[in-house]
């Protein structure tokens, strides 16, 4: 990636091309890169070393707060559209807490999805994957 950024910067600063010009975009657009050099690119200047491999994926915010929240929101819409007491059954649960490190106590109204942090979505995912859900 660094050689693409280096080439884009060369076009911008030596040839006077704009950041949104086609020649610069040819290097940056495919991977959504920015023509910015940071501390990693300065310190780890060996071209063969890919410092992007140093960064780990943050599953809590990448999946639980992103993908799982969208799925849970969609499931809540389906439950609200369905007739019956399905939403009330979701809010009335017999799942005890498992200590501070794992599943914590849920709020009284989980289906409203108010004041839920990423850890709450993680706990909901653990409970939903370990129990049978009947629709």
UniProtKB/TrEMBL annotation:
It comes from the Eukaryota. This is Uncharacterized protein. It comes from Hydnomerulius pinastri MD-312.
């Amino acid at each position: 990636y660094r050689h693409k950024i280096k080439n884009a910067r060369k076009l911008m600063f030596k040839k006077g091309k704009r950041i949104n010009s086609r020649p610069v975009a040819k290097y940056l657009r495919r991977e959504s890169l920015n023509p910015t050099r940071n501390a990693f690119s300065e310190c780890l200047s060996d071209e063969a070393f890919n410092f992007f491999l140093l960064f780990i994926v943050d599953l809590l915010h990448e999946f639980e707060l992103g993908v799982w929240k969208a799925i849970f929101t969609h499931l809540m819409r389906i439950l609200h559209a369905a007739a019956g007491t399905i939403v009330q059954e979701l809010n009335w649960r017999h799942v005890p807490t498992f200590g501070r490190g794992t599943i914590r106590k849920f709020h009284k109204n989980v289906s409203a999805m108010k004041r839920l942090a990423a850890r709450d979505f993680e706990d909901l995912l653990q409970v939903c994957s370990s129990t049978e859900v009947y629709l």
